[in-house]
Amino acid sequence: MRLVKRVLLGAAICVAGLATVGAISGQALAQAKPTLKIGYVQSWPSSSVTTKLAADVLESKLHYKVNLVAVSAGPMYQAISTGDLDAMLTAWLPVTHKAYYKKVWPKVLNLGPNLMGTKLGLAVPSYVDINSISDLKGKAGKFDNRIVGVGAGAGINQDTETAIKKYGLSGFHLQKSSTAAMAATLKRAIRDKKPIVVTAWSPLWIWGKFNIKYLKDPKHIYGQAGYVATLVSRQLPKKAPEAYQFLRRFQIKLSALNDMEAKANSTSEKQAVSEWVKNHPKIVNSWVAGINAGS
C-alpha cells in the first residue's frame, strides 16, 4: 500500500514538474521570438475582434508576443508599407479601401481574404417607407438633414460623401461619429420610431440587434459584395516565418464573426474570443498544424 502511494506521489510530482517546464518553455519561446506589431481600428468591431482572435492564436499556440496597435485606416496602410507594423487584417477590398491599397500595394504582401461576403451601404429601420438611396432625394428634412456615419478615415464615409453627390441628396450632410455612437443614435431613433439613415456594413452586430434594412444602391457607389484581406510587411516572412505561415491560413466565416461580435457586445471582446477559441479547436488547429512553434 505504501509502495502504491509512493508511485502515485511520484507521478503527481512528475506531472507538476512537466507543467512547470512547459510553462517555462512557453515563456522562453516567446522571449526568443520577435515581438509582432499588428494594426487594427479600435472603433470597428470586425477589425478589433478579428485581430484579437489572430493575436490570441499567435500567442497561445505559436508563442509570439503580440502588440496590438490601434490606428486609423490610412496610417495603418502606410505603416505596413514601411514595416512599422508587421500585419493588418482589416483591408476591405476590392472597393472600400481601394484608394488606400492603391498607394501601397507594391510595398506590401497581400495574403488574400481572411473574411468573405462583406457588404456596405446605407441602412434605415424597417418601418421607414423607402427602399433605395435614390428615394432619399428631397427628403433631407425628414431625416434631420443627416446621414449618421462612423469615425473619420473609414472608407464607408468616403463612399457616403460620393453617394450624396451622385444621388443629388442636397440638404443631407454626413455626420461623422463612431461605430458605438452611430449604433446608440440608431437605437434611440428606433425607440422613438423616428426616421434615420446610417452607414452600415456586414459583418456588424447591429443586424442581429435591430430590425433594419439596406437601401438599394442602383449606382453601385458602395460596390458589390467584397472581402477583408490580410496585408503584411515584406519583412515578415524572414522576421517571423511561423507567424507568416499562420496568417496565410487564417480565415474566418462571416457567421462566426457575427457570433463573436454579438457576444462581445454583451460581455467583452476578450471573453468572446477566448470562448470561441476554446469551442472551436479543430478550426484553430487547422490554422497552426505543421507549423513549428518551437523554432
Keywords:
47% helix, seven-stranded mixed β-sheet, D-Maltodextrin-Binding Protein, domain 2, 12 helices, alpha/beta, 295 residues, two-stranded parallel ribbon
Structure write-up:
The chain contains 12 helices and 9 strands. The chain has 295 residues and is an alpha/beta fold. The chain folds into 2 domains: 32-117 and 226-288, Periplasmic binding protein-like II (D-Maltodextrin-Binding Protein, domain 2, 3-Layer(aba) Sandwich); 118-214, 3-Layer(aba) Sandwich (D-Maltodextrin-Binding Protein, domain 2), CATH 3.40.190. The longest helix has 31 residues, at 2-32. The model is unreliable at 11-16 (pLDDT under 50).
Short description:
With 295 residues, this protein is an alpha/beta fold. The protein has 12 helices and 9 strands.
Summarize the SSE layout with pairings.
Blueprint: H1 2-32, E1 36-40, H2 45-60, E2 66-70, H3 73-82, E3 87-93, H4 98-104, E4 108-125, E5 146-148, H5 155-166, E6 173-175, H6 179-191, E7 198-202, H7 206-209, E8 212-214, E9 226-233, H8 236-239, H9 241-249, H10 254-266, H11 269-279, H12 281-288
Parallel strand pairs: 1-2, 1-3, 5-6
Antiparallel strand pairs: 3-9, 4-7, 4-8, 4-9
Helix pairs in contact: 2-10, 2-11, 3-4, 10-11
